[in-house]
Here is the input.
Amino acid sequence: MRNILFKVVIFIIISACSSKKAIISKQLDSNLSSAFYKNQFTGVLIIDAQTKDTVYNQDSDKYFIPASNTKIFTLFAAIKSLPKQIPTLRYIKVKDTLYFEGTGDPSFLHPYLKDSTALKFLKSQTNLVYALGNFKDEKYGPGWAWDDYQWYYSPERSGLPVYGNVVMSYKNPELIVSPPYFKDSVFQLTHKNNRNEATNIFYYPPQSTDTLEIPFITSIQATKSILEKVLKKPVGIRLLIPEGDKKTLYGIDADSLYIRMMHESDNFIAEQLLLLAASELKDTLNGNIARTHILENELIDLAQQPRWVDGSGLSRYNLFTPQNMVSVLDKLYTMIPQERLYAIFPAGGISGTLKERFIGEGKPYVYAKSGSLSNNYCLSGYLLTNSGKTLIFSFMNNHFKQSLAEERLQLEGMLETLRNTY
Here is the structure.
């Protein structure tokens, strides 16, 4: 009798799940076959986080430009590669001279991260020499738009970044410039650009009350001068650090970087995290080292091999599938306690880039990373249903001509269907 009752219960559960999937499939099929989606490319994969059953699938094996969904892969690479505290400097002391090199840590003198570990350490030393030869990457990623050089979201990559590699200007009530090294290079006049393309000459509109963040051109001389100004002592320069066992200085909590990267979609931090990951694998700061290692070791089981060329998703050369995204999200879900995982991802209606959208009924129901470039919008992450289930999803939309707001509105309707039905 008990065996029969058990079979009946299982049958009812399976039937209920099948019914829910049928309702979801019918609704999403109707949405994605509508005129709105006719002239764009859309791929979707949704799975149950506990059972791994596929809830919905449309063209999930096709490649899409992911935009900032790329940061999901960067997050995975960083968590797999980096310790809890970020390595901020590596150094060797010879007599009274400290030779140091960068690790790619983006937090040094960063205007928002406020970590002073490296600053205090360098100030405590007598003689300083910066070894710069371990940075073996390009300042810009492949396929980045050349005319983005003047915008806050496109700072240069470097081995020892300072102040987030941007010049911040604002009025209080006089014009304040950070780092102070560039104070005489910021001109209060209206100009078609924020910065000259080939020189560190910046423009701040006289009538503006905004805070402007403008990337500066990194160089050996700029780094040396900024360091000397803030440390109030000379800093020597050499190519390579002396032979010997290097020590590591650890700084900011890694989650602070992950949260800012994911919540603010911070491209600079994303790029520097791959350099940091490479610095843990080898003595060379090159993002491709980290990407190759992760794909060939931690993600060897991906159903489709992605093309992954940067950490931020600024490049349209990146190509990922919804299956790629869901696979990595599933690995993160398994690796990381939910409280920590959901704190790293933006929460719908609460935080980061999702603060004003995908708003829940009293509490968040979406924890996800968005990604947008012109004509592209992707959203991948976790969805909590009204019945207490967790779904892992990836919606990837490319080549639409409608407004981004319309695209989000259509997606929000489908996410609400999932929340209410499954």
